[in-house]
Specification:
Layout: E1 25-26, E2 34-35, E3 40-44, E4 47-51, E5 64-68, E6 73-77, H1 85-95, E7 100-105, H2 111-114, H3 117-123, E8 133-136, E9 152-153, E10 159-162, E11 165-171, E12 180-184, E13 189-193, H4 207-220, E14 224-227, H5 236-261, E15 264-265, H6 266-273, H7 282-299, E16 302-304, E17 311-314, H8 317-322
Helix pairs in contact: 4-5, 6-7
Length: 330
């Protein structure tokens, strides 16, 4: 899911010379982001992108789902939303008559990534008498897992293979507690889910974990990133650094606003930092501000002096000493 658009940078690193997203055009119906000309696109010898056909203010052009493998058995990463007939038809077209999905891996629990599972299982009921494995990471936020689908929970570092594609699970929480990315060994490429988007910046639930995950991606040093939304990223290091710098800059801006306005509410801070944001993205920006505030409270930089959404002010020395014994409502 996207917060707001960040400037795109030019290509700085090598990437495979397969058909890319460079042929995109602008389209007002796609919420001010680039519109993909093709719903089905071969991105490399082993990666096909099928667009989820669910464009929106948070999904950009729609969810990117990916078929992996060079043989007849395929892995599908993410499934889009529920009840999107055009997507199911495009998925069937991409598979053709000879290929089958053996494994579905969800990068996280959000409906625009797991919602299409039921429809896929109904569309391909026999699947050559082979049951499709459903895989994701377990949630760690205290919320119940969906009971509609029986997931096999993956572990960090776990390897999943089909002919021509070897995937490794990379635990990257922050956007959600169960978020994973997937490392494609054959291409030194990364499927980033909603940790890094092709356009704009992502929303997140836990900023400390999110920054840690972004730094983990830097250590992996992928050649290419296949994001959960937006175009392929062929300058991964620059893009991930841009994400980290964007968050750290936001933190500085929030501290500056608190210093000048204190005590101040999260809503007031969001309105000052995002004065021109689209109305449809305003709530996402508020959530991100609140998560920044949660991190700053945890760090001891600020304190919450109100109830509910609260008012915030810079922490004084006595506040830092009492932090371990206090309970802030964010």
């Amino acid at each position: 899911m996207s917060e707001q658009e960040l400037p795109m940078k030019p290509l700085t690193r090598w990437a495979p010379t397969y058909e890319s997203d460079a042929t995109h055009k602008r389209c007002g119906c796609c919420y001010g982001v680039q519109s993909f000309k093709k719903d089905i696109l071969q991105l490399s010898p082993r990666v096909i992108r099928i667009l989820g056909k669910n464009p929106g203010p948070f999904t950009l052009q729609g969810t990117n789902t990916y078929l992996l493998g060079t043989g007849k058995k395929k892995i599908l990463i993410d499934t889009g939303e529920a009840n999107v007939a055009d997507y199911l038809q495009n998925l069937a077209t991409a598979l053709g008559n000879e290929n089958q999905i053996t494994t579905i891996i969800a990068t996280h629990w959000h409906h625009d990534h797991i919602g299409g599972i039921t429809g896929i299982l109904r569309r391909f009921p026999d699947n050559n008498n082979e049951k499709i494995r459903l895989m994701k990471c377990q949630r760690f936020d205290g919320k119940s897992e969906s009971t509609e689908n029986a997931f096999e929970f993956v572990e960090n570092g776990q390897q999943i293979e089909v002919e021509g594609a070897t995937l490794r699970i990379i635990f990257t929480p922050g956007h959600t507690s169960d978020h994973i990315s997937l490392w494609l060994e054959e291409e030194k490429a990364l499927f980033s889910g909603d940790c890094v988007l092709g356009e704009g910046s992502a929303v997140f639930e836990n900023l400390t974990e999110y920054l840690r995950s972004l730094r983990k991606l830097l250590e992996l040093d992928p050649v290419r990133i296949y994001p959960g939304h937006g175009p392929v990223i062929d300058n991964p290091r620059e893009k991930v650094n841009e994400y980290i710098e964007h968050r750290l800059q936001r933190e500085k801006e929030i501290l500056k606003t608190i210093r000048e306005e204190q005590p101040v509410s999260a809503i007031r801070i969001a309105s000052m930092l995002y004065p021109n944001i689209l109305p449809t993205r305003r709530m996402g920006s508020l959530f991100n501000v609140r998560h920044h505030l949660a991190k700053l409270v945890s760090d001891g930089s600020i304190v919450n002096v109100g109830i509910g959404f609260g008012l915030y002010k810079l922490a004084e020395e006595k506040d830092r000493k009492n932090q371990s014994n206090s309970c802030s409502i964010l």
